[in-house]
Amino acid sequence: MHLLDNLRAEHAEITAIRRDIHAHPELAFEEHRTAAIVADRLEALGIETHRGVGKTGVVGVLRAGTSTRAIGLRADMDALPIQEKNDFNHHSRHPGRMHACGHDGHTAMLLGAAAHLARNPAFDGTVYFLFQPAEEGEGGAPAMIADGLFERFPMDAVFGLHNWPGLPLGQIAVHRGPVMACADRFDIEIKGHGAHAAMPHQGIDPVLAGSALVQALQSVVSRNKDPLDAAVLSVTQFHAGDAYNVIPDIARIGGTVRAFRPEIESQVEDTMQRICAGVGAAFGANVNFDYRRGYPPTINTVAEAEFCAAVAAEVCGSTNVSIDPKPSMGAEDFAYFLQEKPGCYIWLGNGPGEGGCTLHNPHYDFNDEAIPFGVAYWVRLAQRWLSVA
């Protein structure tokens, strides 16, 4: 715990950075102010700094010793289009934008780790500090990859973390395998034939066909998939008509699919396609099915997850490390990094999750008491991965 004690001395400085970022949230690929804060601070620490990686991303490069080994540590920087309802001093100064997911805390903690490692380079190799834009649905990770991230900054493995409301402060959760799900979207257009509502026999009712389709789609997970393989199919939109006495021509349905395994993702898509065709034939309607893959499942590699668990135990104590808790049906674009490199994405305890502490909530705020644990985890992860011994 000696490292934690040292880092607590820097707590106020890192907290100030976190709260400044919180007060000035920026949306996906608009993180110009945040990126400038990150890059300026890295340069002030003497860390080689690359701006504009994946549009608004920043990469810091810190080398020590002579080893060719390298590790990547990632933090996300973007905020959400949510109106903040907090009234503390560091509340958002920008209407309709807020850090409701803790990316301000993630950025500040990685900056804290960069500062500590720059001042105490007790490792042999290279640490890449990856400050990623646009995690919230816009794909900042693939943008950085497309910009040559892994060619320009060759690393052996890549690691990420996310604060986790509901996980007690001072605890870390590690998954040896799936940790977050995919996030796919679908749109279904049902073309019927409009008619007077009093004479439905003269038309083809897309509302009736759509209602049957919504019901049938519920069988995809419950009756077409192995119950031991987790998946979620949620219809979240149904739009049709705008009059009380008219059967419309078209109904539109939309929603999301979540799964942990790519093969289950494909099975769900194929089954949905079959059901759409069948319902269309049964009702005489033309059903167009559009399925779009989003973020893939976030799947940790086992060896790296076990390594992270050992580091977490060193930082927090073995009794404060949770191994293989239930994964989340939420999604995370860190998954794209894990498709390219081995690595691990862990959850850092943010304290009670009741009320306004939950993610994507207008009352959310990152718990600053978690900062020393996150910084210590990053520092020890880099030091152990690039051990001098």
The side-by-side strand order for the widest beta sheet comes to 1-2-4-3-5-16-6-15
Write down the overall geometry. Answer: elongated
The total of helices stands at 11
- Approximate helicity band: 25-40%
Please write the string of helix (H) and strand (E) elements: HHHEEEHEHHEEEEEHEEEHEEHEHEH
Number of domains: 2
Poorly predicted parts: none
Total strand segments: 16
Q: What is the second-level CATH architecture of the largest domain?
A: 3-Layer(aba) Sandwich
Computed over alpha carbons, the radius of gyration is: 24 Å
In quaternary terms, these chains amount to single chain
> What is the distance, rounded to the nearest whole angstrom, between the alpha carbons of the first and last residues?
21 Å
GO molecular function: metal ion binding; N-acetyldiaminopimelate deacetylase activity
Cofactor: Mn(2+)
Binding site for Mn(2+): 101, 103, 136, 162, 360
Domain Peptidase M20 dimerisation: 186-275
SSE topology:
Elements: H1 2-8, H2 11-23, H3 32-44, E1 48-53, E2 57-64, E3 70-76, H4 103-119, E4 125-132, H5 140-146, H6 149-152, E5 157-164, E6 172-174, E7 178-180, E8 183-191, E9 195-196, H7 206-223, E10 231-240, E11 246-247, E12 250-259, H8 262-283, E13 286-295, E14 298-299, H9 302-316, E15 321-323, H10 334-340, E16 343-349, H11 371-385
Parallel strand pairs: 3-4, 3-5, 5-16, 6-15
Antiparallel strand pairs: 1-2, 2-4, 6-16, 7-14, 8-12, 8-13, 9-11, 10-12
Helix pairs in contact: 1-11, 2-4, 4-11, 7-8, 9-11
Please give a structural write-up.
By secondary structure, the chain is an alpha/beta fold. It folds into 2 domains: 2-180 and 297-385, Aminopeptidase; 183-295, 2-Layer Sandwich (Alpha-Beta Plaits). Helices cover 35% and strands 25% of the residues. It is built from 11 helices and 16 strands. Strands 1-2-4-3-5-16-6-15 form an 8-stranded mixed β-sheet, with helices on both faces. It has a 4-stranded antiparallel β-sheet with strand order 10-12-8-13, covered by helices on one side. The protein has a two-stranded antiparallel ribbon with strand order 7-14. Strand 1 (48-53) and strand 2 (57-64) form a beta hairpin. Helix 7 (206-223) runs antiparallel to helix 8. The protein starts with a helix and ends with a helix. The mean pLDDT is 96.
